[in-house]
Specification:
35% of the residues lie in helices and 18% in strands. It is α+β, with helices and mostly antiparallel strands. The strands form 3 sheets. It has a 6-stranded mixed sheet. β4 (108-115), α5 (119-133) and β5 (137-144) form a beta-alpha-beta unit.
Length: 277
């Protein structure tokens, strides 16, 4: 048994530990220029094992599974089940059935490009590979180290990768800072870049619904429209949600009124924090 003084110190430190959600959602993007069969994209979504991805990151204190590109604390969030009915651990049998229904050769080759070079990201990529390989795919991993986004944004690389990793955080807690920046093809896709639409997703109907959401004067109706869009985009496999990144913090013993909230995107609210004399 630890000495009483040590126990007191540990208890005091635990009282100053916080584990908030960060602003960032991690997700995968099928490449619509290459994966043109929707059943193959659906098979990917069904095969993904969020549990093994999170375990490779370090566990539930560092990642939390999600079904949406929008965080629950962001206005415009809509709660919906995994759109293809797969559990958090994936459904390899269902994924294989979808690939068979698609009529593609199996195992189906997938080139996964991600931001690599760290033990954590490489472990997560390996966990994803194992889940997809078990579901009828044959995954080649490419972890980019010196550069990342400029590579997956470059049209000359569009025929190379099938699946990419990305992360995004709302600029302020409203879904209008999530859906349009990522999936409005008019502001993203050009001959020079895919902007932040790394999967080359383009849907005129989705674009028109974004315009309608912007024009809706009623905030509740507008936020509901963003939520519906997040679900429709998941059904289109414009994105495959993975997790919300979490932070683990320890603040000082003389810090007073320590507060973290959604308005400050999970960061310390400096307007509330003080220092004891």
């Amino acid at each position: 048994t630890a000495p009483p003084a040590y126990q007191v110190r540990v208890a005091a430190q635990k009282s100053r530990v916080t584990n908030p959600e960060s602003p960032f959602v991690e997700y995968l993007l099928p490449n619509f220029k290459k994966l043109t069969n929707p059943l193959v994209r659906q098979a990917l979504a069904v095969a993904v094992n969020k549990n093994s991805w999170i375990a490779a990151a370090g566990g539930p204190q560092l990642d939390e599974a999600t079904n949406s590109i929008i965080k629950p604390s962001v206005a415009g969030y809509k709660k919906f089940d995994n759109v293809f009915g797969a559990p958090e651990g994936g459904d390899p049998a269902k994924a294989k059935a979808l690939l068979q229904q698609a009529g593609v050769p199996m195992p189906f080759p997938i080139h996964f490009t991600y931001s690599g070079g760290t033990p954590t990201t490489d472990a997560q990529a390996s966990a994803l590979k194992q889940a997809l390989d078990n579901a009828g795919f044959k995954v080649t991993l490419e972890g980019l180290t010196d550069t990342y986004y400029d590579v997956i944004q470059n049209p000359s690389n569009a025929k190379k990768y099938d699946l990419t990793w990305a992360s995004w955080g709302a600029d302020w807690p409203n879904a209008s800072t999530v859906i349009p920046p990522l999936f409005d093809s008019r502001v993203n896709l050009s001959s020079a870049s895919n902007g932040q639409d790394y999967g080359w997703y383009a849907n005129p109907s989705i674009n028109q619904t974004m315009d309608a959401a912007y024009k809706e004067p009623d905030a509740s109706k507008r936020n509901a429209m963003w939520g519906d869009l997040s679900e429709q985009l998941a059904k289109d496999t414009a994105y495959i949600p993975l997790d919300i990144i979490k932070w683990l913090r320890l603040h000082g013993s003389k810090v007073t009124n320590y507060t973290e909230n959604s308005v400050t995107s999970g960061y310390a609210d400096l307007g509330q924090v003080g220092i004891a004399g």
